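Request:
You are asked to prepare a plain-text protein record giving the amino acid sequence and the backbone structure tokens, at your earliest convenience.
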Amino acid sequence: MKKEKIQLKGITWGHTRGFVPMVATAQRYEELHPEIEIVWTKRTLQEFADKSVTDLAKEYDLLVIDHPWTGHAAAQRMVIPFDDFLPYTFLLDQEENSVGQSYASYNFEGKQWALPIDAATPVAASRPDLLKELGVSLPRTFDDLLALAQKGRVGFSLLPIDVLMSFYMFCCTSGEAPCQNDEEVVSEETGVFVLKLFKSLADHIDTRFYEKNPFKVFEDMTQQDEIAYCPFAYGYSNYSRAGYARKLLHFHDLVTLDVGGTPMISTLGGAGLAVSSQGKHIDVAVDYARFVASPEIQETLYVENGGQPGHLRAWENTRVNLATTDYFKNTLPALQRAYLRPRYDGHLYFQDHAGDVVVNYLKNGGNEQAVLSELNSMYRNSLTWESNNG
């Protein structure tokens, strides 16, 4: 009698970068282990950010997760800590070859709840052909960016979640990381300055960008010939690969706020591979996760199939950079200094709602102190939400 295959189910997000490398690695893993079948399902980017890991872990063995879910996942114990299953040497290599704080972003309460298979932060993107037509060089400072935006040639995501991440970026770049105490998101002085600065730019961005996530911004840039520059959006190396889109994008480090200053500090993103604690075949799922996160797969099969690796070896690989117009080499400095946002359980409540407050201000104006007061109230609620629901 033929033995039934072990089947694992995985969930990731529905973009080439999120889905295709998982399918490719699953296919190869099955070829190496014919007794195992791995089926990947995809969800939208918004669902990726929103749907509870607790709910997903009841349905799936493997979960590609957004790192702010780490605190919630750890509190609920719905995913396994890799420290209990993988060799110390493997995890040490992952830590030592982390792209920025990608590895640390999945570490909570001294345990590793996901492997950093994907690394990202907001970086700049350009259409070199359009900049050349305009007779404009690549923006280096915020003033350069503003001048190009006033010509109607700049676009970036103005969705609430991306606006909040950009607000964090402006705060960090202005010398104050958000959420450093239990009373306020950021000081009034910094907050007012940042909101005014952010609005001075947003006022020159077409309103269609209030409906676009980062990769839809890149689709807009490559399918049309209007937007020449995106100053900050979570990077997608796919658009720097020949043949992927109608036009090639080049990716860069961020602008500086002042002449001679250091480039802006953006808010770390990326994705990690977690294993549900509810599955019947945890050891098999862990072994597949190890396979995907290994440096050998990260710098070959994973990146070759549209992935954006979380292992530093892939980012520094000459062949990988040749295939992506130096995407990885050019944006690595931004990853290395990116801000690690809070991951306590209740911060997801804040993250889900705070962006709407800033979006409303960018669209309609208003009193900056009132905006900050609303954010602070929401932030304090998120801290008590943790203690009430943790």
